[in-house]
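Case 455 in the screening queue. Each case pairs one protein sequence with one candidate compound; here the compound is iron/sulfur cluster. For every case the pipeline is the same: read the inputs, emit a complex structure as tokens, and attach any notable structural observations.

Predict complex for case 455.
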Amino acid sequence: MIDKRGLQRRDARNRYGGELPSTFEGPGFASLAAQVHETMDAMAGLFPDSLGLYVSIPFCRSKCTYCNFASGVHPASEHSRYVDQLIDEMHEAGDWAKGLGLELVRRIDTIYLGGGTPSLLEPELIARLFGAIRAQFAVDGDAEITVECAPGQLSDETLGALVAAGVNRVSLGVQSFVDREAKSSGRLHSRTRVLDDLRRLREAGVGRINVDLIAGLAGQTLATWEESISVLIDCGVPHASIYMLEVDEDSRLGREMLAGGARYFAELVPSDDTIAGMYESAIERLDAVGLKQYEISNFARPGSESRHNLRYWQRRSYLGIGLDASSMLREKGQEADASGKPYVLRSTNTDDLKRYLDGDFGRGTAWLSPERQHEEAWFLGLRMNAGVEPQSLRSEFGDPLVERALESAARLADDGLLLRNGETIRMTAKGRLLSNDVFQEFLENSLQEYSATGR
Ligand code: SF4
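Case 455 output:
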């Protein structure tokens, strides 16, 4: 699964009815030296000395039943035109940013090709794309370079081209190791094929592998879910993403769930309670084998966390190119001041492939108000198990906003959704299942929405 919007697309959702104790404590007091240290650490992570680059590749071999992303089945003849446009967009990015008063940082330390199915790109297009990236930007020697692959859709030639281009991490969209579940959701692979791809990746030197699974596929039961988790564990991958199925009404499965029908097996989608049970079981079992949860949907062995996705949750700058790709760019060294002048830009490209292929990137651009950024600091920070340190937000946003958020945090703690540990506020297990309720509480504090009219 890709995350082109900077937010994971399937969350732990409102599926939990149980009660957990609230253990929120009142605000504590760190020593002045500790406060200064924390603030400097936090701000050092925000200043845009490096960029993450996201590249959207919207081509798929078939359309999954639950998918409503801007991806589709398109003729291979469009791949080359599309890569040409990606390269044009990269060339223009510096001028585009300059026109908005921002300097585009050239140093890149993470690259993520998502989609879609980037492994469908022909080897020569992969070489051309990465050649252009390296010509346009200064890519760190130890940059994390991830490519999403669909099992069974990664030829030896493409794998060779990816490795030659410096790709060192692969995310495999497995979703289920039970063949009939994968098939009923529109995937084209079998378990055997996935295991073979894992072997080929390792033989090619790519050991940093993520496996995506989805809890809640049509026909899935608790027993088959446990089977998928067992196979995932046996694979020995260092990273896993566990998503709870979120059926969007724009997907084929979603339309069938609303209107009825049997083509996409809508009637076989498990209940919310069953899906919540699957998610909780996965957390427990993955933890037991050293795959620690570090974000609502993400699990890793220590040191194998996705550096690119951490960038989103830590509000560090990234440039997104391609169809429906988003960017978040910060003005260097800026933070909130009394003027309330926005210093963070969010932009999203068109999701119309024809328009993009015609050279119109259709960027929708908005400056984020400090209030909006402050909200994001909370709901992105709370996604991570590391949580939020309110003290570190005070220097960027000032006391009034942070105090108001702390009132929200206290209410959520009373409901057992948040937990305060010293200077850190985290979501509880119940909070992760009800994460949208948690995020909503912080969004309701908004004084100002996006400022689309400039600064
Ligand atoms: S492979 Fe991913 S992007 Fe393509 S249809 Fe399936 S879920 Fe959507």
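Case 455 observations:
- The longest helix spans residues 77-99.
- The two ends are 34 Å apart (CA to CA).
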